[in-house]
Each structure stands twice: as C-alpha cells, then as structure tokens.
Structure to design on (224 residues):
C-alpha cells in the first residue's frame, strides 16, 4: 500500500524567506508524483507532475524536484499570496487513484 | 467550460437522513473520481468511473455509500442513513486519462451531520 508523508505539518515564513517542503513516499512502481495547492474551502489545484528521479519542474516561485524516495517543493522569495496548504500525492502500478499526504500548511507573513 | 462543478457547496443534515451530491466534470474528461477530505488531512480516494463504468471502489466506501455516473456524464454520490463520522468535504475530480494524470478538482461539497 502506498504511503506518502509530508513535513513539516505547518510552516511560517516571512515574505522573501525561501524554504522547502518535503514529501517522502513509499510506493511500488511509481507512475507519478503530484503536487497540489489547496486554499481554504476549495478543492486542490494542480501544480506539477514528476515521473522519474532527477526530474524538476518550475512555475513562478515554485520548483518541484524528485528523488527515488522524496520530492521537494522549493519556494523562492515567497509572497503572502503563496499562503495555502500544499499537498503531495502518488500514483502507482495500475491504480488510477492518488494517495495523498496530509499536507503542509504554509503561511507567508508580509 | 468552467471546470468541475459540484452541488451543493454545503449541506447540513440530521443523523439518519439520506443525502445526494452531484458532480459535473469537464465535458471532454472520461474519468471521474470521488474523494473525501476531513480537516487537516489529505483527500482519501472513494471511487472511480471511466465513462459510465465504476471501475474501482475503496474499502472506505461502506454499503451506505453509492455512486452512479449515468451515460458517462455527471455523477451522483449518495449517502444513506448518515452518521456524524460522515461529516467531511466530498471532492469530485475529472481527468482525460492522458498525459500527466493531473486531475482537475471541483470545489467540493461540505457535509455536516448533526
């Protein structure tokens, strides 16, 4: 059974203070590693999919990376509007569903 | 197309009542998923449709839960004899099954059982 663990549970940053969120996964036959952003009261919003170790993807101030055991979401010079919960999820084998971690709640203070 | 739509956004019901939620996926997406999310947790998979066929169900989906997707278009999720433990956000997502598997989620239905 797939397991996805995210850390830290919560992170408070000052505006402009770069940091990284961690996603550790135990998956047999990884098909994809996903990052989503979720704002309060809304559904998750797709950010990235990573398929193989060494892959990196970027979008504005966010960069996602993947190793054989972990994925990192790097946030460079964050702004208050980056405040949200960031979710990591895996897809493996023939399964169509995603297995999500519990998320990291990011707060960026002005 | 404005994305995945869910109705209602909020539902308050008394314990023991039946409730039904509706999801309208992105029109060209043939895959539809239901997830449940409780406070402070990530979404948990409930069930998956490809067109009108329900192909996978989680063991979380007790006999009180039933989902349909007639004609491969919208989907409904019904919960019979609701319990307080059913209080959660119910999320619907759809995908085309191609490329990145990046689902598009709706905004969810928040269920409160009192």
């Amino acid at each position: 059974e797939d397991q996805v663990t995210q850390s830290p549970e919560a992170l408070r940053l000052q505006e402009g203070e770069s940091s990284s969120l961690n996603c550790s996964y135990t998956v047999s036959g990884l098909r994809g590693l996903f990052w989503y952003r979720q704002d309060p009261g809304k559904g998750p919003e797709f950010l990235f999919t990573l398929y193989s170790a060494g892959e990196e993807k970027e979008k504005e101030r966010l960069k996602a990376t993947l190793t054989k055991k972990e994925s990192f979401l790097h946030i460079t010079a964050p702004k208050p509007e980056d405040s949200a919960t960031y979710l990591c999820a895996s897809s493996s084998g023939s399964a169509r569903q995603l297995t999500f971690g519990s998320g990291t709640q990011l707060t960026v203070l002005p | 197309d404005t994305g995945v739509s869910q109705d209602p956004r909020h539902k308050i019901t008394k314990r023991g009542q039946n409730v039904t939620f509706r999801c309208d996926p992105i029109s060209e997406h043939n895959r539809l998923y239901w997830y449940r999310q409780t406070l402070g947790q990530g979404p948990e998979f409930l069930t998956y449709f490809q067109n009108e066929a329900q192909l996978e169900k989680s063991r979380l989906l007790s006999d009180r839960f039933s989902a349909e997707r007639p004609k491969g278009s919208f989907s409904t999720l019904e919960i019979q004899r609701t319990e307080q433990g059913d209080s959660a956000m119910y999320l619907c997502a759809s995908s085309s099954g191609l490329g990145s598997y990046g689902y598009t989620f709706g905004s969810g239905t928040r269920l409160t059982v009192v």
About this structure: Residues 53 and 67 of chain A are 4 Å apart (CA to CA).
